[in-house]
Amino acid sequence: MNLDPQRYGAFAEIGAGQEVVRWFFRVGGAAGTIAKSISAYDMSVSDSIYGACERYVCRPRLQSMLDCEYQLLLDQLGPTRGEDTAFFAFADTVSARNFKGTNECHGWMGIKLQTVPREQPSQVIIHVRMLDGENSQQQEALGMVGVNLVYAACFLKHDPDQFIQSLLDGLSVDRIEIDMIEFSGVAFRQVDNRIMSMKLVQLDLSNAAMFAADGTVLQPSEVLYKKPILVERGSFRPVTHVNMDMLRCAHEQFAAELGADAGEIVQLTEITLKSLLTNGEADYADFLARIELLASEGMMVMISDYFEYYRLAAYLARYSRNRIGITMGAASLRELFNEKYYTELQGGVLESFGRLFKSELKLYIYPHLDPETGDFTAVQNLEVAPNLRKLYEYLVERGCIDQLSTFNDAYLSIFSRDVLKNIKDGDARWETMVSPHVAAIIKERGFFGYQGE
């Protein structure tokens, strides 16, 4: 970077210190890259430069820093260097480990840049969680990931896969977690941020990633913080009447139990990475088909590698001390009591349920109708292994597992596998199993092998 005569920019850092620009100064030749370095550490100073802000470690503060510093570069240096220089502004706002060790250690980091002189700006924003136990280690890791971000934005913009992998060069996921990344601007116009969110999880840079129905990338803590959370896990291939009816029933019951002071309930549809991979490889077209259909239903989506429900529960509880509800079908509940999934835990199935129900979490169960035998399965008659029967009854009596009661009987015979088969076979009956707008999108875009009846 320091030997590239075309790159020139400003560094603005708030929080841990000037950790990123410090690396550029240390290696020599810094005058070739750095137009300005600033640490607006004091809140009043920061407000006077970038405008007032309720929180100092947040995305709006980062954006105001990037916009301000980038525009200053154009105003101050554009007339004299604009023809030959691609300007950039790097910024971060960070909360590293405090003296008492009581704060959340995280930060926002981004770069706004021209890839060639006079070009309209492009931008990359990431959110990081610093996992080192010592402040000095967090500062070091923060500096390294910042350098990696600047380098990737300048030299790896044409290869998003390599771009993401390079962010942890010299680091490990034990030190830094990147749980959000967003590309924008002309240099990244071919990048789909939803796929990039999935890649964060796929490449182990994060355990989970989220985005809104409109495709906007979300940072989990800002969405989930102190909110009651209701989650439905599924493959959603495609989203059917059953999926939406399950969430509707669970939301009604969850909201009634929370009462008038519940506040806004965050509803999530969650897809595990395992259900998105085939022989270890991701089918991105299939992934986007599922996501776009969920978006048509107005759903927020989370991608995670938390196959075990107790790990998902721990992740959600990290961000919210409010109530958490998970809704699932009776068949999934039966699988939850399969001891083969808990062999890696010293306490086995007992430890898993202790973790799962630690924070007043509750399971809301949608009944199952066997299409071959016609057997109806609900919480009251679910069969589990004899040695786990007492545990199951205890959890039901305690209110940890509850039966949904306002379900639509007509939907119990709908299964995603039947919808997929009918789509591929050209059997129009599948259209009655999904909402009209979901059916229209599948037909219009040829999702899941649709060829017409």
Description:
With 453 residues, the chain is an alpha/beta fold. It folds into 2 domains: 7-191, Alpha-Beta Complex (Maf protein); 222-411, Rossmann fold (3-Layer(aba) Sandwich), CATH 3.40.50. 38% of the residues lie in helices and 21% in strands. The chain has helices at 19-27, 43-50, 59-81, 135-155, 160-166, 193-202, 220-224, 241-258, 284-296, 309-319, 330-336, 348-356, 389-397, 416-425, 436-445, and strands spanning 7-14, 34-38, 86-95, 106-113, 122-130, 176-184, 208-211, 217-218, 229-233, 266-272, 277-278, 281-282, 300-304, 324-329, 362-366, 368-369, 376-377, 401-403. An 8-stranded mixed beta sheet has the order 8-7-13-10-9-14-15-18, with helices on both faces. The longest helix is centred in the first third of the chain and has 23 residues, at 59-81. It is globular, with a radius of gyration of 25 Å. It starts with 6 loop residues before the first strand and ends in an 8-residue tail after the last helix. This is Nicotinate-nucleotide adenylyltransferase.
